[in-house]
Amino acid sequence: MKINPDQVRYTPEASELEASGDRPRSAGNDSERVLRGSLAHGHSWWRRIGRRSGALFPYELILLPALAMFVFQGLPVIHGILISLQDFSIWNPEPTFVGLWNYSRVLSNPLFYLALENTGLFLLLAVSLELILGLCIALLISKPYPGERVVRILLLFPLLVAPVVAGLMFYWMFNAEFGFINKVLGLLGFPTVLWFNRPWTAFLIIVLADVWTWTPWFTLLLYSALQTLPPEPVEAAHLDGANAWQIFRNITLPLLFPVASFTVLIRSFDAFRVFDVVWTMTAGGPGNATEVFGTFVYRIGLLTVNYSEGAAAAMIGALIIMVVGVVVYGTISRIVWGRTAA
Amino acid sequence: MRERHGARILRISMIYLVAFGFLVPVLYLTLTAFRRPQAVFYVLEAGLEFSIRNFTDALNWRGVRIKEAFVNSALIATVSTLLSLVVTLPSGYMLARYRTRLARTWFFIIYLVRAVPYVSWVLPLFLLAQKLGLYDTYFGIIAAQAAFHVAFYSWILKGFFEGVPHEVEEAALLDGCSRWGAFFRIAVPLAMPGVVAAGILGWIWGWNELLIALFLTTESIPMFAKTVSAFITEMGVEWGRMAATGVMATVPAVIVTALCYRYIVAGLGGIHKT
């Protein structure tokens, strides 16, 4: 007997059930009982709607996660927006409605723009470096080499270290008096550098710390992607006489684009919210040279204990990143899938 | 394509150079941890003098309660990871199996949630948690961590479930299995390597968690990452003890990763199928 998938029903239609008296049956032939499989006793409101229980399944699936996200992220955001529209700080614990006043304060604060600028620059530098280095390493380890087992774990190390610890490590290493970088430089005859006293060097060290921590992430993902690439196009190109660089540029790179672009996107979001490393190493210094969005909100919201202004800053940043995220996502999905996904 | 001998040697030396480069900060930290506390400023010059004074000091430091922090972080990381995975598995499955408008909307929501910086909801959550009585409770921090990772796991698990062929599930459905039954008994076991990989990564992140812990707990719930920052006293940074704590903080993550490396690579191989 040929089964036509379109005609297979996993649950009885409403009319059938009404006809059968709307009662679960222990009798009835095997296929009937089996077809009623997932309809346990008492789901009568589904039957009345006349839907197959399968149609609600996707909603059931996301019910719990959506609830969790709503309670711990949705509600706080709503609460945050409310607070940002009020005047709520340690000097004014009774919130009063002030409309967009906090927003105008944040937007007229030059430190805010500096923080955004720094964050953007940090993001560009750090993520590009991580991508390029990660790709290079992934290519290096894609062919066998001695000591693979151990090296693999070593390459993952930076991911395992807590960002706080990483920040402290780099702070310690580049310590002007006792850090070993300066001592090594001294041994080699170079003058010692006051790494954290000059804006550019401090910035670079923060980028370095981030690159150190996250390059392994790119390596891991790109390596996994490389392993699952189909070998046929590469072999065909090789037969046609293409050299390694041409193969890489015209086959490997385009095939890696989906993975790489989404990884870059997600990592960019994480880079935008960087806090741990910056705070432990420079606290936004020297001066304000390394102030980023995360430290700015922390400073305004908690250090000055002006909750509502901090909330306003947080919301503005969230809005910016969401808009950028949507635009970039649309662009990428058009490239990858030839259409917008939403 | 065979690799020329010279290129191979170059490649292998590059690999080891990079591996060493990654290790240098960690090695330096470990070396610092094993020096005598006073020798912290002469880490490289102190020759072969080692001591575990820093570790004993840190472990016995009354104000900071490292042993409790160790246990707490492990407990909180484990429970929140398990909770988060259990709650998020259906979400990843749904994103993988459905292409409806609902699925696209859900994906978009998750994407937006991932985009927003933590600080944007941790700050209001801090205020909200006090009103709801969740502040400074184990339940609060576990639930918050679990919820925060839902978006992350949904993304990854979607990739894994897409790698699970749906023919087996459809066969089971035709045989009368319920949708949830097909999910639990077929899809999830087949996606297990990926789930384990995601779980391991999530556990490590839970273990390293700082920001949420700072906002939602006080000293009554010691956690590892917080103790590291606790060594910054007014008298200056206690480098020796901090290094020791840093080393102790990293050891569990290293052990877990070393044991489960296969799962991580195998699991993440499916992630590119988003």
- CATH architecture annotation of the largest domain in chain A: Orthogonal Bundle
| Rg of chain A, Å, rounded | 29 Å
Task: Return the CATH class of the largest domain in chain A.
Answer: Mainly Alpha
Largest sheet of chain A: 2 strands, antiparallel
| Helix residue percentage of chain A | 55-70%
Name the chain pair with the biggest interface and residue counts per chain: A-B, 103 and 101 residues
Spatial gap, N to C terminus of chain A: 41 Å
Instruction: Provide the CATH topology of the largest domain in chain A.
Output: MetI-like fold
Mean pLDDT of chain B: 79
Number of distinct helices of chain B: 12
Describe the protein in words.
Chain A has 15 helices and two strands. Chain A is mainly α. Chain A has two domains: 1-51, no CATH class; 101-337, Orthogonal Bundle (MetI-like fold). In chain A, strands 1-2 form a two-stranded antiparallel ribbon. Residues 7-51 of chain A have low confidence and may be disordered. In chain B, α8 (167-174) runs antiparallel to α9 and α9 packs antiparallel against α12. Chain B has a two-stranded antiparallel ribbon with strand order 1-2. At the A-B interface, α4, α7, α8, α10 and α12 of A face α1, α3, α4, α5 and α6 of B.
Summary of the model, kept short:
With 342 residues, chain A is an all-alpha fold. Helices cover 69% and strands 3% of the residues of chain A. The longest helix of chain B has 32 residues, at 66-97.
Structural features:
heterodimer; A: 342 residues; mainly alpha; MetI-like fold; 2 domains; two-stranded antiparallel sheet; 15 helices; 2 strands; globular; B: 274 residues; disordered C terminus
